[in-house]
Amino acid sequence: MSGDENFGGFDLNAFGDWGACTTFLGATGFGRGEEEEEDLGRYPYNRKETLALYNAWVSISYDPIVENQQTRLCFWEKVTEAYNETKPKGARRRNLKMLCSLFDRCDRDIKKFCAIYGTEVANYQNGASGADILRAALRVFKDDKGKDFKHVDVWSTVKDLERWAGDVPSCTGSNSKHTKHTAGGQYSFSEGGEG
What is the percent of the chain where pLDDT is above 70? Predict the structure, then answer.
């Protein structure tokens, strides 16, 4: 690893371990996703709102009480309700279309970063620190996508969940069933059906 790696205005070599890196990323605002905006472009989402959306998605997806035979529309209505009930203080209420759009935009990058990170884990020697692997994955993401990865906090929350290990479709198309196939919560989608 070279000695002059700089991403998002900070030196990745300054981190000795994973904890120091994530603490720094949170403290500096790197990964806040300020560029993510709702459909009308008036009220940008911040890091806490994006994280709250993913937490709502996960809580509905992995809730064993919630019926697993539901349409995407029904599922996203529940996610929207959960988000608006738990949104950060001072955050605006968001509707289903806004949240689904944000989720899709962010999820493309998060899934891509998960794949890159997994490859870096497989390629690194035994004894490599989590910070070394994260630095390498951030570098590869930037080289590949031409932009910094802005959702490190969300990724660190969801990276070990099945949805981000496989290839599950996102929320486009409202007439599909959302069916749980495993006890761990992996979902697939099929066309038609009642909600």
Answer: 61
